[in-house]
Design goal:
- Residues 80-245 form the Peptidase M48 domain.
- By secondary structure, this protein is mainly alpha-helical.
- It has one domain (2-9, 17-273).
- It is built from ten helices and five strands.
- The protein has helices at 2-18, 35-52, 59-74, 78-81, 109-114, 118-133, 136-157, 163-204, 210-220, 236-260, and strands spanning 20-22, 28-30, 86-90, 97-100, 104-108.
- The strands form two sheets. It has a three-stranded mixed β-sheet with strand order 3-5-4.
- Helix 1 (2-18) runs antiparallel to helix 7 (136-157), helix 3 crosses helix 6 (118-133) and helix 9 runs antiparallel to helix 10 (236-260).
- 31% of the residues are buried.
Length: 274
């Protein structure tokens, strides 16, 4: 049994070494799943969400979301800009938005109301597309697979220990990997998507300084009450601080777009003020 455990760990380590890639920000990451498989999962998930959620047919809201999306998509790298992105607005007060591999974007009317202008909506749009560009869904699934494999191998190695002692050790390992690996990975993903999104919105001609203001709005809504150590997302305070420090670095991109005289025009519908 021990030899099987060691063999599992060795095989897992070899797979991890082969599957190392680099994110758009230069961060090393683990990706065990192909782009084609992720695109299929994204398409399936999006179709299911449109069946389960109420899709808004409001032409003004859909045009607003599409306008911001088009402006961001225009400045994406070719492999993403050439995708035929589908944008859906969901009629729900939930403060939520998402982008899925394969070119799918969803916005809830709740978050569209929270975003005070098109610049803040662009910050959300850029953030969600940033998740797709950095292949965070693949990295998260890959990390979970490795954690599961590691815990399985550890359980095999502990097979000769007394049952109570084995359960206690495995329980501690499970909590430890959650706090030390899974949650920090999620917070890293969110921070990285913030950074990518800020770059995208600046390139597209949206005001970068509105990104930290968006998170001030989020904080006012009471988000981030969970201690950051135990949260999958950075606290609003951390995001405001980090984004504010990053704004000066992307201002030249925004100023270049201003100088070119091709700023996007996506006026926010007045009905979102209700």
């Amino acid at each position: 049994m021990k030899s099987i455990g060691w063999l599992s760990l060795i095989t897992l380590s070899a797979v991890v070494l082969v599957a190392c890639t680099t994110s758009p920000t230069g961060r090393s990451q683990l990706n065990l799943f192909s782009g084609g498989a992720l695109n299929s999962l994204g398409q399936q998930s999006f179709a299911e969400m449109k069946q389960q959620e109420k899709v808004s047919n409001d032409p003004e809201l859909n045009a607003y979301a599409q306008c911001v999306a088009d402006a961001i998509i225009e400045v994406l790298p070719d492999e993403y800009a050439n995708i035929e992105w589908e944008v859906a607005v969901f009629d729900s007060e939930a403060i939520n938005a998402f982008a899925l591999p394969g070119g799918h974007i969803g916005f809830y009317t709740g978050i569209m109301k929270l975003a005070e202008n098109e610049h803040q909506l662009a910050a959300i749009m850029g953030h969600e597309i940033g998740h797709v560009m950095a292949e965070h869904s693949s990295e998260r699934m890959s990390t979970n697979l490795v954690i599961s494999g590691g815990l399985l191998g550890a359980d095999m190695l502990l097979s000769e220990r007394p049952t109570e002692q084995r359960a206690m050790i495995m329980g501690a390992l499970g909590i430890g990997t959650q706090l030390a690996v899974a949650l920090p990975y999620s917070r890293t993903h969110e921070s990285e998507a913030d950074e990518i999104g800020l770059d995208l919105m600046a390139r597209a001609g949206f005001r970068p300084e509105e990104a930290p203001k968006l998170w001030e709005n989020m904080a006012a809504q009471g988000s981030g009450s969970t201690p950051e150590l135990l949260s999958t997302h950075p606290s609003p305070t951390s995001r405001i601080r980090d984004l504010s420090s990053q704004v000066p670095g992307v201002m030249p991109l925004y100023q270049a777009r201003v100088s070119a005289g091709s700023l996007p025009k996506c006026p926010r519908p007045r009905k979102l003020n209700n």
